[in-house]
Design goal:
Length: 356
């Protein structure tokens, strides 16, 4: 008798302690037991559940559910995804396994259900992400093809082209290819980090002032509505950094400052050296007067795929800042943002300098 009691306690512990929702129902469908996890998932208390039919718990189309139930009665098992109908009227996506259990009292079914809402949400985010990335890559690709076709048509017609026109077409092609390259590199870094692989930095002496000036001059040249300038308190700021990656960080911040200032305006990148007790730092501040970031979104803009509510009208996939933060932190630095919605944004990058 003691052994039987111990076994009963063990199985009860399993039934009550597991995080999956479990219920038993009779051959006809009447629920005869439900564990605490199922009660928590569905929001129905035990007395309510015990009066219900198993099909009352599904939010699936009733004809499909009835057909599945008939198949279960015939074959003794069913497995699939379903939507659990909850007490508050909401539904919860679950993965369910149902199997027949032949007890001395007759045939019973045991159903176990796992909440898959997180997985579904992740799949949805990935779907949105992939479609925006595809869309984003197509924009510069269209620019590249457009320019290439223009050159081709002129060549076919034998139209003479001034060196300026030729240069502007080539610049267009190069710019588009560069933007695509930046996005692809961001993607690779961001996904590599997800697999917990640290970024392998290729450090070499880099002058940040020179790097910023190059990007700023280029941005100022191609953006007519924006006035982009660099202001540096130092003639040089040399550190041991991964140059192509830092270039991406600055290009991302600068690109965002331009993109999120649709009416044009001043964009300033300022550079300075800061001496702290823990050594000296290179500080880069990118400031724009664009649409800004709503306070509720500001804490999340460095997270993957996160975009502010007011960014919908602008192209983007929400990976640029996540990539920028990865790179800066891999260098031992920090990146932060301040913003006034409707008034502009300021992004600050701090990088440890070799003690030069
Ligand atoms: P996206 O591809 O969406 O621009 P990012 O990762 O570069 O992705 O930026 C994440 C979000 O941060 C953007 O969607 C936008 O909401 C906000 N953001 C970034 N930079 C700025 C800026 N300079 N001004 C306003 N909002 C910005």
């Amino acid at each position: 008798y003691r052994d039987a009691q111990a076994a009963e306690a063990r199985y009860r512990g399993l039934f009550e302690g597991t995080r999956d929702g479990i219920m038993l129902f009779e051959h006809g469908g009447m629920i005869v037991a439900a564990n605490p996890a199922l009660r928590a998932m569905s929001g129905f208390d035990l007395p309510r559940l015990l009066g219900m039919h198993a099909l009352d718990l599904t939010a699936d189309d009733i004809e499909t559910a009835e057909a599945q139930f008939a198949a279960l009665q015939a074959t003794g098992e069913w497995r699939g995804e379903s939507d659990l109908r909850c007490a508050d009227g909401s539904t919860l996506p679950v993965e369910a396994w149902v199997a027949a259990l032949d007890l001395p009292t007759g045939r019973t079914f045991v159903a176990s259900m796992r909440d898959v809402s997180e997985r579904r949400a992740f799949e949805q985010t990935q779907e949105i992400f992939l479609s925006t990335v595809a869309h984003d890559l197509k924009n510069p690709l269209a620019a590249v093809r457009g320019q290439a076709q223009l050159l081709q048509r002129r060549l076919d017609k034998g139209t003479a082209m001034t060196p300026e026109k030729l240069r502007s077409s080539i610049d267009g092609i190069d710019g588009g290819a560069q933007r695509m390259g930046l996005m692809i590199d961001d993607l690779v870094d961001v996904f590599r980090m997800r697999g917990n692989q640290p970024l392998a930095l290729h450090r070499q002496p880099v002058d940040l002032v020179d790097l910023v000036r190059r990007l700023v001059d280029e941005a100022d040249r191609v953006n007519e509505r924006h006035h982009v300038r660099a202001v540096s308190a130092e003639p040089t700021l040399v550190g041991s950094w991964d140059e192509p990656r830092l270039e991406r960080v600055i290009a991302n911040l600068l690109g965002n400052a331009i993109k999120y200032s649709p009416d044009g305006g001043d964009i300033t990148i300022s550079l300075r050296r800061e001496a702290q007790h823990d050594g000296s730092w290179a500080v880069v501040v990118v400031e724009d007067h664009g649409v800004g970031i709503p306070p509720a979104d500001l804490p999340f803009v460095f997270e993957r795929f996160r975009r502010a509510g007011n960014a919908r009208g602008f192209g983007g996939s929400g990976i640029g800042l996540a990539g920028a933060r990865l790179i800066v932190e891999a260098h031992g630095g920090t990146v932060g943002a301040e913003s006034i919605e409707g008034g502009g944004s300021t992004f600050t990058v701090r990088l440890p300098l070799a003690n030069t």
